[in-house]
Design a protein that fits this description.
Layout (H helix, E strand, L loop, with lengths): L12 E5 L32 H13 L4 E5 L9 H9 L6 E6 L4 H11 L3 E5 L5 H8 L5 H16 L3 E6 L8 H11 L2 E6 L17 H11 L2 E4 L9 E5 L5 E5 L12 E4 L4 E3 L8 E2 H6 L4 H13 L5 H4 L12 H4 L2
Parallel strand pairs: 1-2, 1-10, 2-3, 3-4, 4-5, 5-6, 6-9
Antiparallel strand pairs: 7-8, 8-9, 10-11, 11-12
Helix pairs in contact: 1-2, 1-9, 2-3, 3-5
Length: 335
C-alpha cells in the first residue's frame, strides 16, 4: 500500500537537490552578503553520489513517486549531470524527470540532457531588462546568456519550456507584461510566483507580495484571460488561457491562496536529508543511514513512516511572525 500522510496526501513527487552551489546570488535565495566568495559550501564527500541518489529514488518510486525534479543550488553546476539522468531514466516506473535551472549553462548542456532522457526544463527568469536582471541575479552573466539557453533547450526538444518569475513589489512587477509578451511570442508557459518567506536569507514582508489576482488583472487588461481547469488536484499553479489563442500563463498563489492540501512532494537535499516541506526547519539524515549500511528494507520502512507522520501545512498557517522563524535555506533543499 502506498503511504499517505496525516492530511491524506499521497507521495507522488520528489525534488532532488544535486548541489548547494550556484553561479547566481539572487537576493531572495542566496544573497551575496551572507553567501559570498568565502562561504563554505558542501564538499564533494558531503553530497550524495549518483549511485546514492539512484538508490534512494528507486525506493521512493517503489512507494509511489512518479515525478522527479532535479534542482539545486544550480543543478547544471553538478559535474556529469546527464549521467544521473541516464541512471534515473532506467527506472521503469518513473514517468517524468524534470529540471529547474537558471538557464545560464543550458547552451552547453541542453542537448546532452535531452539525449540522456530528461523530459522537461523549467528556467527561472525574473526580468528581461538587462540592468534589472543583473541586479536580481547579482551575476556577471547577462540575461542574453539565459535567453540563449532557453532557445537552445527549445531546439533540443524541450519546448514548450516553463519560465518561472518570482515577483516582488517595488522590484520587478513592471516586468509582468514584457515577460508575458516574450513567453507568448516563443510559445513558453510563463508562471508568476508570489514572493515567499523561504529560508532565512531574505527580508520577507507581506507588503512585498504581488498577489496572483493582481497579476491576472494586469495581464487581462492587455490580453483577456479565461481560467482553465488543470485537471490535477496536486497542481500548484492556477492556469489561465489567453482568449486570443496566445497560449497559457500560470499563477502560483502560494501566499494568498495556499495549496498545502494538494502538496504531494518530498525533498531530498544535496547532503542527503529528507524534508517534507519547503519551509522545514530540520530534515531526516538519509545519507548517514546509506553510508552506515542500512538495507533497502530499512530505508523503505523509514521513508514510509516519515511520510505517514507528515502534517506540514506552513503556507496555510503563515503570519508575519512565522516568517521570522529559522528555516532551511531554499538552495539547500531544492526550492
Amino acid at each position: 500500500m502506498e503511504p499517505v500522510d496525516r492530511l491524506n496526501r499521497p507521495l507522488r513527487a520528489l525534488r532532488v537537490s544535486v548541489t548547494d552551489r550556484c553561479n547566481f546570488r539572487c537576493p531572495y535565495c542566496m544573497p551575496r552578503e551572507r553567501f559570498g566568495d568565502d562561504h563554505a559550501f558542501l564538499d564533494r564527500q558531503a553530497i550524495l553520489s549518483f549511485e546514492e541518489i539512484e538508490r534512494l529514488v528507486r525506493l521512493f518510486v517503489a512507494l509511489g513517486v512518479r515525478k522527479v525534479r532535479l534542482t539545486g543550488g544550480e543543478p547544471l553546476l553538478r559535474r556529469d549531470l546527464p549521467e544521473l539522468v541516464r541512471r534515473l531514466r532506467a527506472i521503469p516506473e518513473l514517468r517524468d524527470i524534470a529540471l529547474t535551472t537558471n538557464g545560464a549553462l543550458l547552451p552547453e548542456l541542453a542537448r546532452p540532457l535531452r539525449v540522456a532522457g530528461l523530459d522537461r526544463v523549467t528556467v527561472s527568469l525574473d526580468a528581461l531588462d538587462p540592468d534589472r536582471f543583473a541586479a536580481l541575479s547579482d551575476s556577471r552573466l547577462p540575461v542574453g546568456r539565459v535567453l540563449e539557453g532557453i532557445a537552445t533547450a527549445g531546439a533540443a526538444g524541450f519546448g514548450p519550456l516553463k519560465l518561472n518569475c518570482v515577483l516582488q513589489r517595488g522590484v520587478n512587477e513592471d516586468e509582468i507584461l514584457p515577460l508575458a509578451a516574450f513567453a507568448r511570442a516563443h510559445g513558453h508557459l510563463l508562471r508568476f510566483i508570489e514572493y515567499m518567506d523561504v529560508g532565512s536569507g531574505q527580508d520577507w514582508r507581506m507588503d512585498r507580495v504581488v498577489p496572483a489576482e493582481e497579476v491576472a488583472r494586469r495581464l487581462s487588461e492587455h490580453w483577456p484571460l479565461e481560467r482553465v481547469d488543470s485537471g490535477h488536484a496536486d497542481c500548484v499553479a492556477q492556469h489561465w488561457r489567453y482568449r486570443d489563442g496566445g497560449g497559457e500563463v500560470g499563477l502560483i498563489a502560494s501566499v494568498t491562496a495556499p495549496f498545502c492540501q494538494g502538496c504531494d512532494r518530498a525533498r531530498l537535499s544535496a547532503d542527503g536529508h529528507l524534508y517534507a516541506c519547503l519551509f522545514a526547519t530540520e530534515g531526516l539524515d538519509l545519507k548517514g543511514l546509506l553510508r552506515g549500511g542500512a538495507t533497502d528494507a530499512t530505508l523503505s520502512a523509514l521513508l514510509r513512516s516519515r511520510w505517514a507522520r507528515r502534517d506540514d501545512r506552513y503556507s496555510e498557517l503563515r503570519t508575519e511572525a512565522t516568517a521570522r522563524q529559522p528555516k532551511v535555506e531554499m538552495f539547500r533543499l531544492g526550492g
